Inverse folding.
């Protein structure tokens, strides 16, 4: 009798174990990719960064990021819904399931990776400076040491990677944060701050557009090479697998490079903003 009870106990334990494993397997199978295909629409969180995503003169969102999102949706056979979100709140919004994925030039960082999972990189960037010529000359700012001073004021977009660039390279400088690039740049043009730190090619474009007022103190994009990736909620290996393979596919066929060069090396799109 004891032997029989032991055998039944083992069978029951095995059944429970398989049941738990089956339940876990079902849970893992519930991917955001399945949700996207079922609803026929991918919902994407993004913030505006020139030339990643920006509004043209008709109010339409255009940019490298938008081309990536539209191509991804086309390959999936679904429509697109864009959810513009302030950058410093975009990860909490993803976790709250306000959208399926973040595609907004988000740099891979260990601290962020504790909260979300990143795909393979699909773009690479550096941080540059667009500086006020008159202010820099007036204050005698020539070397990196000169710029690392309490008398220097820098601007950044709130919540973005260039904030860390500023703190690491110019820890003594004052840093003013703004909700969008236009405000941060205007503060420099108005003479209220010495320089705007942001990802290339924006500083280069700003200098080209304002040759009398702005310049590159240290050349084009000298700071913090980094990689941008899609961000998804944790616990979804199927989504990561799909996005990783989509990125790899379009790296190998040249589409990502061609599209990146269109927005980051060309300037034909500038006419659509006026």
């Amino acid at each position: 009798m004891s032997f029989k009870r032991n055998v039944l106990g083992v069978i029951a334990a095995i059944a429970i174990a398989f049941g738990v494993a089956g339940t876990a397997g079902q849970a893992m199978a519930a991917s955001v990719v399945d949700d996207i295909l079922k609803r026929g629409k991918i919902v994407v969180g993004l913030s505006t960064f020139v030339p990643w995503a920006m509004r043209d003169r008709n109010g339409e969102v255009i940019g490298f990021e938008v081309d990536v999102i539209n191509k991804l949706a086309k390959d999936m056979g679904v429509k697109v819904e864009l959810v513009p979100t302030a950058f410093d709140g975009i990860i909490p919004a993803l976790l709250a399931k306000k959208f399926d994925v973040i595609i907004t030039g988000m740099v891979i960082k260990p601290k962020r990776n504790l909260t979300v999972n990143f795909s393979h990189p699909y773009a690479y960037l550096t941080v540059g400076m667009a500086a006020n010529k008159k202010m820099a000359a007036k204050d005698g700012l020539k070397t990196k040491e000169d710029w690392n001073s309490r008398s220097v004021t820098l601007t950044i977009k709130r919540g973005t990677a260039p904030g860390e660039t500023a703190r690491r390279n110019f820890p003594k400088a004052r840093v003013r944060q703004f909700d969008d690039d236009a405000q941060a740049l205007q503060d420099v043009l108005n003479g209220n701050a010495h320089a705007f730190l942001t990802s290339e090619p924006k500083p280069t474009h700003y200098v080209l557009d304002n040759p009398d007022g702005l310049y590159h103190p240290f050349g084009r994009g000298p700071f913090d090479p980094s990689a941008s990736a899609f961000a998804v909620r944790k616990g979804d290996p199927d989504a990561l697998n799909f996005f990783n393979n989509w990125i790899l596919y379009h790296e190998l066929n040249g589409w990502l490079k061609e599209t990146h060069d269109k927005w980051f090396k060309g300037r034909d799109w500038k006419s659509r903003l006026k």
User: Anything to note?
Assistant: Confidence is low (pLDDT under 50) at residues 10-15, 20-27.
